[in-house]
Write a structure and sequence with these properties.
globular
Length: 220
């Protein structure tokens, strides 16, 4: 891993390590496999997580590094779940969140970011604890909302992207910032698709219906 971090190439005048390039390219490949419900989704995602954990840890971004651990755990669970059930789609109800749910998400994001930022700062785990913490907390919230089938999880991902792109640029991770931008486009498309589906879905549907183990298609 040290070799992949220390060596790389120049792209558009910016240095990109082999670890960063491979990790982000694999993250994009995950989208391709996930859309086709391929079992390759999970090992590819796991390889991406391992590489990007090393990249962000070496960049002193403890929050985004910890984020890879969360995605890795979800990946392992998804791999196990899909291997037990070849058709992973359980027909989760797609809906928009109620006002109280939106307020709860906002409060959780603000409080979680504050608490985690203070922890990162106290442990010197990040040179930019506040945006770093916001990305970690936003990721956890997005996966939680995705599991409940709430359209708003796409909005949380968009916030993560909006914070992540400038943070990546300031960290010198230009290629990662470009990939975050690509994911932002996918997020907007996903939001429009889910929002359209939510408008068609019957309001009487059970909002607590269990979701399938979704692939962690996210800005990594």
């Amino acid at each position: 891993m040290h070799v992949l971090l220390e060596h790389g190439f120049t792209l558009f005048g910016q240095r990109v390590s082999y670890a960063e390039f491979a990790g982000q390219v694999l993250a994009l490949v995950v989208v391709f496999f996930a859309q086709r419900r391929s079992m390759l989704t999970w090992p590819v995602q796991l390889a991406s997580v391992v590489l990007l954990f090393a990249v962000y840890a070496s960049a002193d971004l403890g929050g985004i590094a910890a984020r890879q651990v969360v995605i890795g755990l979800i990946t392992l669970h998804g791999w196990w779940a899909w291997s037990r059930r070849r058709d992973p789609v359980l027909g989760v109800v797609v809906r928009t969140g109620a006002t109280r749910e939106r307020v709860a998400v906002l409060a959780a994001f603000l409080l979680g970011t504050t608490g985690f930022a203070l922890l990162l700062d106290a442990t010197n785990a990040s040179w930019a604890p506040w945006p770093d913490a916001a990305i970690f907390v936003g990721t956890v919230l997005a996966f939680a909302l995705q599991g409940r089938g709430l359209v708003e999880f796409w909005i949380v991902w968009l916030v993560v992207d909006a914070i992540g792109v400038p943070l990546q640029l300031r960290s010198g991770l230009w290629f990662s910032a470009a990939v975050y931008t690509v994911f932002a486009v996918l997020v907007v498309k996903g939001f429009l698709d889910w929002n359209r589906e939510a408008r068609r879905a019957p309001r009487a549907a059970d909002p607590a219906s269990p979701a399938s183990p979704a692939s962690p298609v996210s800005p990594v």
